[in-house]
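Entry 14. Structure prediction run on the chain below.
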Amino acid sequence: MLDETKKCRVCGGSEADHLQSLEKTGKRHYWIEKDLCGGCKATVLSLASIKGGTGKTHVTICLARAIAASGKRVLLIDFDLNNSLSFNLLEKETQEKTKRLNIATALNDENNNLCDFALPTRKERISLIASTPYLADLRTLAQNRLKRMIHTLYGHYDIVIIDCPPTYDNIVLNAVSASDYTITPVLNDSFSYNSAHFFAGVLPRDVEGLKAWFVLVNGFGKRFDNAKSGRQNDFQKLYERDFPLTPKETWLPWTTQIHWIVDYDKLLTRAEGNRGMIYNPDLHKAISGLAGCFFDEDLQIPEAF
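Output returned:
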């Protein structure tokens, strides 16, 4: 029997409303909390690795741009003391505001609403909670603080992406504990493999209720895919043997063009002839495919983002 008094605090929909939506769309209806429907919950994703240089920030930016281009609302949280994400996406006049509006200040008080600390970026539909060097003072923060606050973002954003520092401490544990998905990018080298192996051992131990953790291959050479020997082949076998991997079509191809996309704010396109854009259909396909992993519906990602 339907409970007509039960309504979502964000969209106001009742059980009857959601049942009608289910009949029209075929999408499963569920309640995240007693007064929050599944459609109003933001998906939370962390990019985490103890090894620097594997592409966490580059993947975060490209993924956010693709998802925002599809019409979704994106919030980025910069957990890295280097502030790379914040400097890349915030206008200079906005960066001044980060002295008081940053993730360290937000986490200082569990009663804070995280939305109050989000700043607009240079990209449409992408907001950001900036990092700060004062995050170093929060390394003893209770690892579930962010998890207990993340609900304040529900209804305001479709996805929250957290760019983690190349460390393993309570800052990273806060991100992973609050996340529906955690992805560790890896390169074809022993340092990346050891980093992923470390995460495979400690995350299930340290994160209560760990949800989905995957390894993402960054720097995949399609032309070497069928080689019987070689470094890529060797590491691919190790990764496939030892870790849960994202789908192969989401592995990012080896290319220096990603630096042009991120560092020089170039658009990535899958169509030839777009002057001033970076033409790389394989990279476009991989990022679009990865973006689609976090949504129930098919994302309508344009040919350039």
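The mean pLDDT is 92.
Filed with the rest of this week's runs.
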